[in-house]
Amino acid sequence: TEDTDANGDGVVDGRDLLRFNVDAEWLRTYQLGGLQMQTQLGLAGDVIRVSDDSIFDDGDSGLAPMAGVTLRYPMVRASAGGVRQFIEPVAQIGWIGGDGLSVPNEESTRVEFDEGNLLSLSRFPATDRRERGWAVALGGTWARLDPDGWSASVTLGQIVREEAQADFSDSTGLSGTTSDFLLAGQLEFDAGLAISGRTLFNESFDVSKAEVRGDWSNDRLNVGGSYIWINEDTDIDLDSPIGELTFDGGIKIDQFWSANVDWRYDLELGRAATAAAGLTYTNECVRVGLSINRSFADSTTIEPSTRLALTVSLRGFAADTGEQVVTRSCGKQAK
Known about the structure:
0% helix, 16 strands
């Protein structure tokens, strides 16, 4: 429990933080036949000062030297019709030295393990926490690319480390000395349909986190939905699992009018959580939006509520938004 009553008067003062971080890194890539080797060396300096907190007194500082070697062996096969298949096994050994700082965890409370940080030396989202010690990342990617048909990719990976990191909770999939398996994939069709998914599971196939997202769009209509499941994790105040279904969509009625809807359903509670709908008018001068949002939350602290909103924004001074606009000008016509 946070204790920010620094002077003991029974009043919470509010923690204050001053942080200064410096990172320097050197990268070099070598091509050894079909094998690609990337080396990296770095040094990070962290200075964090804490005030108005009786638990973390004054703050801490330290240096974090780091090094890593990543090996890749990409293989490509071309087929008829411009179809290409790609397979790339990867392996990385990395090390970060120094000691963890005795400071509050302000920004690294929610950690995601995905294909984007599989080969990162530290997977914390901010520098108030860093992974320490030796770690090995193993994985691979398969992809099929078709300019006129369907394309897909699948990534599988796992982390093995020398020492467990105390600030990785169970739901991150990174706790312990061996991480959960990461499995992620995407599937796209030329008709505008795209499906993506990601999951974390251990050797017993117990899933700690899963997400599936589907989208379809054309020139006028776009619809999408997702399923999210996260296992309970008391370290991040998640006393029960999260299971949700979401739906969102929009339609372009004509060159000026568009509408959108959004809906979220709580599978654990067996009821809708939120719903929203909106109507927007846009021309070359102004954008006007009318929306209604309904929250179905019902607890001892939060009551169900409905919110109406009207927004008006001028577009005459804005940069190009990338949207299709009519060829009219916004200005006063000469008499």
